[in-house]
Amino acid sequence: MSAHETAARVSRSDALENVARVGLVAYGVVHLLIAWLALQLAWGGGSGSADQSGALATLAQEPFGTPLLWVLGLGLIALALWQLGELLRFYGGLSGSGDAKKHAVEGVVKSVAKAVVYTALAVSALRFATGGGSSSSGQQQQATSGVFGLPGGRFLVGVAGLVVIGVGVYQVVKGAKKKFLKEIDTSSASPGQLRVVERLGQVGYVAKGAAFVVGGGLLAYAAITFDPSKATGLDGAMHTILQAPFGQVLLTLVALGIAAFGVFCFFRARYPQRT
């Protein structure tokens, strides 16, 4: 049996898939918490960061927050391992040609990106579980400041901003064109369930994409102004949306969209990835 066949077998194992479902549910919970923080920000009742670190900090303050953070972190680690299994499976297809090779390249890129995101969020969750969590906005500002000190650092930050904007645009297109349906197996879903999945995915991906575009714009602006304090991540994006004309309404819509993505993650746990 070849290496990529072994990886495919592992990534589709029932044990890993069931644990990965926990990770998807946890990922959905994080987005629901971010949506709640964004709604509080929109209506004047929020004091925490409207981003992943704010969501984890909110969870840490709950009576059973610490064990929940451990479950969330470990579930996300399993989700990252699942994506790495997918990566190895796609990697075996890079030796092909034509559409098969293109599909393999896309699969490798997506699997790497998802694995990185899940791993970073898992690390943050486990840090909060052990009492060592911190603001992701502050971390991004420090990282940006450090990159500015490198040769060509300003250019690198600008490129990073454009990449984040590109990811945001991709998310919007993915939602608008319902491309996310290619990544999940809804063959057992009823027509009503399928409609719900489609609507949640459309609204959720568009809202997340819009937030990414604003966040990437802030990063690019930090490069233009040579000011790392402008690189404030998702929380900064939420505040920027709020300061725009009709910002309260816009931020409310983004928050509801992110909440929709959170619920979509629950359906993703129900209908696993089959690529």
What do these coordinates show?
The protein is mostly helical and 275 residues long. The protein folds into two domains: 134 residues, no CATH class; 139 residues, no CATH class. Helix content is 77%, strand content 0%. It has ten helices and no strands. Helix 8 crosses helix 9. The chain is globular and about 45 Å long.
Rg from Cα: 19 Å
Major sheet, described briefly?
A: none
How many structurally independent domains?
Answer: 2
Assign an overall shape.
globular
Which ranges are low-confidence, i.e. pLDDT below 50, for 5 or more consecutive residues? Answer: none
Structural class: mainly alpha
Tell how many strands the DSSP assignment holds: 0
Number of helices: 10
| Average pLDDT reading | 80
Helix content: over 70%
**N→C terminal distance:** 20 Å
Strand content: under 5%
Order of helices and strands: HHHHHHHHHH
Quick gist of this model?
The chain is an all-alpha fold and 275 residues long.
What labels would you give this structure?
2 domains; 77% helix; 275 residues; 0% strand; mainly alpha
